[in-house]
Amino acid sequence: MFAKGWTSRESVSVSFEPCYGFCPVYDLKIQADGTVLFHGERHTAVLGDRSVRKTPATYRRVLRSLASFRPANGTTADTKCVDRVTDHPHFRIVWKESNGRETVLRHDTGCFSPTNKRLNAAVDHLPGLLGVAGYAKQTQSPGVSRG
Predict the structure, then answer these.
(1) Mean predicted confidence (pLDDT) in 39-43
(2) Domains located in the chain, CATH noted
(3) Assign residue 71 a region: left if phi > 0, alpha if psi is -120 to 50, beta otherwise?
(4) Could you tell me the pTM of the whole model?
């Protein structure tokens, strides 16, 4: 997770969780002022915390790209499947309001539906949009196990 002091503003964050292979495990957050925060945990080119400066317009673009997937304010929801396969990574999106209220969407990328295909594409686009694709790049390090 992010270092102290990186948690108190209006933001959108995505946490990419482990899979049974060498999937990158990292947290990505953009705050309303355009500050982008990255924390690489496993199988990423960069481990630890990094920040990138974007604009408030970039934040609004992220909000728009994820708006149709956002659950009702203040709730936590899971995506719905038409078909499912196992061993795929999961991610979690958190929309945090300035008052601290969080809205959460949990998603298994092995949970297939037309809506989830669009969600996966929108989330796959975020590292490039936010300037952290190089940090998040999948990397295998000697001695680091799968998962």
Answers:
(1) 96
(2) 11-136 (3.30.1560)
(3) beta
(4) 0.91
